[in-house]
Amino acid sequence: MEFGKLEREIRIDATPEVVFEVVSRPEHMKMWWPEEAAFESEPGAVGELVFGEHATETIKVVEVDPPRKFVFRWIAPDGELPEAGNSLLVTFELEPVGDGTVLHLTESGWREKGWEAAVLEEAFHDHEHGWDMYLPRLQKYAVSVVPR
């Protein structure tokens, strides 16, 4: 199996504008993914995603192109800011389809982490499982914030 890029695609019954807010604003993100999120939605901003008591990840926003794309880096070594070569790159690309949106998720940078093969495989599968669990939550939450 290839562990270079993790990709997922889902259709959401909400406009790209709504979905963009849901994936790029901490107050929305924490409703479907981390327990807490604190960051500014602007390129170069550094913030945090908190998953339980003992799992806090630093994120660095890379690209903000509403309502088409939101990109950030995360999973850097302790004490280091996420940068090219030491972190994973998460890209949410949004495509309008009818009255909804297709969200394309890509998580890359796996090989650049320099992990041993077994560690790489375990982390990759952990993230696959995670996105498979959280993307349906995103889908459901985005629909709940659609103006009525």
From TrEMBL:
Taxonomic superkingdom: Bacteria
Residue span, Activator of Hsp90 ATPase homologue 1/2-like C-terminal domain: 13-141
Signal peptide: none
InterPro entries linked to this entry: ASHA1/2-like_C, START-like_dom_sf
Family: Belongs to the AHA1 family.
Protein name: SRPBCC domain-containing protein
Organism per entry: Nocardia testacea
